[in-house]
Description:
alpha+beta, 17 helices
Amino acid sequence: MEKMKTDVLHCKEYPQFKLSIFDSVHLVNDEDWNAVQDNLYLSIPYLEALEQTMEGEMDFRYVLFYCEEFQPIGIAYFQMVDLVDNGSKYREAVKKLGKGIGSYIIKEMKVKTIVCGNVFQCGRFGYAFSDKVPHEQALAAVEHTMERFRQSKEKKDKASIILFKDYPPQEYQVADCLLEKRYHMFRMDYNMEMDILSEWTSIDDYLASITSKARTRFKAILKRSDALEVREMKRHEILQHAERIDELFQRVLDKSSFKFGELKSSAYAAWKERLEHQLIVKGFFRDGILLGFNSAFVHSDELDAHYVGIDYDLNEELGLYQRMLIELLNDAIVLKKSKLKLGRTAEQAKSTLGAYPVDMRLYTKHRNPLANKLIAPVIASVEPSPFEQRNPFKRA
């Protein structure tokens, strides 16, 4: 295991930062790390579980930034993972660039990528800094660190693509500074979010706030899924049904256009062990057979939906996916959260429940300057999938 590296980061127009780089979370000084962050997805227990379960599948880098007095002022988190095109609509366009880039990677449709952030969570969870550090300065420090990895002579640090992921609208202005560094901005599918009103104390209050047509649809889903037994799964149950969970999750992954690593059920068992009630995993059973599962993290004042696994052969008959959405809504209300984050995909089904789209920006760059120019039109063509936005609520 590589030991800590310490260096001085020279950020143009900004004071010097000292930084320490680690290739395992177990080498990180917990006290310094926690001094500048309070985010679940950047917490040591969360990261330990993820590193443990993804060992051999992907690499990680953890960075601590210090001021000149060697006080912690920021952290950054990077994942090194293969991006696999699983049959996206951009596949042929990317293949056409193969001759210009001259890379076997294009033939395999697999690209080694350094990601600032977390490929398994929707949101900007790549860095956190002290309130004393301006946002522009924080991003400049992280980008310089990313550039350091890009220029590294060590094989394990080399990657073709570098990616900053999931900036929300309130951070667009700062994030667009990356365009000056020859990054390309693009937008993937919307992140669907739903506000949970404080006056909703039960699902009945929610039903009272929607139209009669929406209420009829809601009750029809409950009736169709009445044969399902829904229960929260404890760690030992996750382990007991591990093989089936992986099978159901793989069915969902097989429908994805892109894949960034493959999460296993062991990750949920490890998270459940370390995070306890901050992770909810629900199983959907019929006659004792697991037909689907959903998962969500209790994060700050939000319930943040994670991955699902579905037996698609029974999805329509039993309304599996729609019942999962209802369960997530009910959990958010019971837990008295102010927001339910439902993630990407299935936008229309989520909007039927009351969710609305949030446009997230990603920024990417190819390590080869020529290739970086060639991929510009392909990147520009990536945009959110169209869908019909629904509104189930009564008019104010």
